[in-house]
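mind reviewing both lines:
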Amino acid sequence: MDRLIIEFDTALRSVVGGANSQRPTPGSEHTSNSFLDASEREHAAGLMRVNHVGEVCAQALYQSQKLVARKKEIQQMLDHSGQEEMDHLAWCEMRLQELGSHTSYLNPFWYAGSFAIGLVAGLAGDKWSLGFVAETEKQVENHLESHLKKLPAEDRRSRAIVEQMRVDEFAHGQAALKAGGVDLPRPIKTIMQLMSKVMTSSAYRI
């Protein structure tokens, strides 16, 4: 029962806000918005909203895959990665507030869809579930690298957050491969990329 309550709380915080981080927020030493004009703040907020949606999806994926993982050590690995993703969620949420913006209004939709996808991946077996995690983290890492090029140069606070997220995502992907994840077929990777494009284009604005 305690576990169910914890997981429900995680889902609620992912969708409606109020995520808590266990690690300090990267970039706290930098000034919040002093050097950003209105258009730069709006652009940075759009990018950080996309990153926040990515973390909402990550929480759903890790939660659903933990439910059906066959081995306890895999459940523990997913739980550890999920906790670090919760840090990302909290950092992005806080940065959006600082930028005077909001999280995506479509978060319940993103969470529900990702939870369903995670269940399907998990039910396919641990090696496929872990392979899905590894490919997801690889695509997220590439996506974060592109955001480092798009964020305003003076937005050192957002850039520090995104850089630490990128480092963590790489580690999560490597952990999934080390635990037995397999390389996914090319068609599945392509579908994942197309779904990501739909999500990022929508979350930037809504």
Remarks:
- Residues 32 and 98 are 7 Å apart (CA to CA).
- The radius of gyration is 16 Å.
- The chain has a mean pLDDT of 83.
